[in-house]
Known about the structure:
Blueprint: H1 3-17, H2 20-34, E1 41-53, E2 57-64, E3 69-75, E4 82-88, E5 93-96, E6 105-109, E7 114-122, E8 129-139
Antiparallel strand pairs: 1-8, 2-7, 3-6, 3-8, 4-5, 4-7
Amino acid sequence: MNKKHIIIAALSLLVFMHPVGINSQEDSLIDDCLSSIESPFVAGDSSSKALLVGEEVAEFRTTLFDGNTYRLVMCSHLPGLIEFSLYDTNRNLLFSNRDFGNTGSWDFKMEGSMECIIEARLNNEIAESGMAIMLLGFKVR
């Protein structure tokens, strides 16, 4: 067998071994998450995601603008798995879903514009690992 045939065989093997199921599971989870942002809200143009294990904390940053009403949605493959908190840049706690039964979403209106930090962590009583997907929608005026 010549070198060209070996390279073609190796590339073919890599293509067939590619884990397509992981991406389709993630796409399905994002679609489920998007269904939580319904009229009068529209989804922003990006999602943020993190694979969490154990005590890891994911940190997402965003700027929120005065007068806008937002819907923050945090999704995972199990209900209540993700605990999330919203802070200002001085780390003053603005919201924690732990105070509301680990709800997966929160609607709020901004009074003043600010950069915010959103932290996500696992509820380790439910699972030791999981995907956190965050979407931020805004209300159409």
